[in-house]
Amino acid sequence: MKKTAAAKKAASAKRGASAEKTASAEKAAPAKKAAPAKKATSATSAASAKKAASVKKAPAAKKVVVAPKKATARVKGTAPAKAVVHPPGDESRTALVRRARRINRELAEVFPYAHPELDFENPFQLVVATVLSAQTTDLRVNQTTPALFAKYPAPEDLAAANPEEVEEILRPCGFFRAKTKSVIGLSKALVEDFNGEVPGRLEDLVKLPGVGRKTAFVVLGNAFGRPGITVDTHFQRLVRRWRWTGETDPDKIEAAVGALFPKSDWTDLSHHVIWHGRRICHARKPACGACPIAPLCPAYGEGETDPEKAKKLLKYEKGGFPGQRLKPPQAYLDAGGKPAPPLGAG
């Protein structure tokens, strides 16, 4: 009996140890399972950090170039309102015509005294001066022609001139030998074919040596009052910047731009565009911040947009300098313009 009681006591002790061992194992099991949860939390944190980093590295939105609603050159002491300039890539024909004509009206307000910048007193002087203006400035031509016309006042005189003497006079204009040949040749043609008179028709003018369509339209528009578009380098540059046309050939530019305006506007339009190109919308660094037509220009921002810096880029009378003509029209002088100095002065 004693043995049986002892056996029972041992079995009970064995079961208690086993139960304690099982309880300890169950207690330890949750701790074992908690480890993956911690790993999952770390993975989630890493994913969030990576997402935040990618958001941080996203490129900033491109800054939109804006143009002043009105010319900064006209407004002093006030910050101009801003308006986004959208390139008119899908501009309709009607919208293009309206924008082009508005640009011309705006330029007419800025340059009400715009005029041909070659000094002349009659059609003969104008056609000669225009031929001489190729690849040089109007100022240089104006400084050279007084001596030329003093010695050879009429086509008959220049037709009979000694080429070497004419070359010496025209030397400051550059390419003086070729230009001497042209002006003597056109003078002979005037004497022989037109009785010493400059013809007033395009088809006759372009037959003269050295006279192309551009020169012919200068003469027709300014000596005869017949409308014409003068497609010089300034005109070509600006009408492409304004997207009036994408043509590069002068004759095609003339046709494309002419179709946007009534004929009566053609001569003054040429003056407005050329004046703007010489004074504000320069080839290398246009003064965008001082441009009166900035809100209408799809090329705004190609040049200096800061108003104060742009003002320093302005040329001729707008920058305090004289214009191109030694004898400018009275309207130009009344507006504050200054005559150019004669050859050798200053």
Q: What report would you give on this structure?
A:
The chain has 346 residues and is an all-alpha fold. It has helices spanning 2-56, 93-110, 123-132, 138-151, 155-159, 163-170, 176-194, 202-205, 213-223, 233-241, 250-258, 266-279, 307-311, 330-334; strands spanning 66-68, 82-84. The protein has a two-stranded antiparallel sheet with strand order 1-2. The model is unreliable at 1-6, 19-41, 49-59 and 71-87 (pLDDT under 50).
Task: Record the SSE blueprint.
Layout (H helix, E strand, L loop, with lengths): L1 H55 L9 E3 L13 E3 L8 H18 L12 H10 L5 H14 L3 H5 L3 H8 L5 H19 L7 H4 L7 H11 L9 H9 L8 H9 L7 H14 L27 H5 L18 H5 L12
Record keyword descriptors for this entry.
346 residues, mainly alpha, two-stranded antiparallel ribbon, 2 strands, disordered N terminus
Helix percent band = 40-55%
Helices, by number, come to 14
Biggest sheet features:
2 strands, antiparallel
Number of strands: 2
What is the radius of gyration computed over CA atoms, rounded to a whole number of angstroms? Answer: 41 Å
What spatial order of strands do you see in the largest sheet?
1-2
Residue windows where pLDDT falls under 50 for at least 5 positions: 1-6, 19-41, 49-59, 71-87
Distance between the termini: 145 Å
Report strand %.
under 5%
Rounded mean pLDDT score: 82
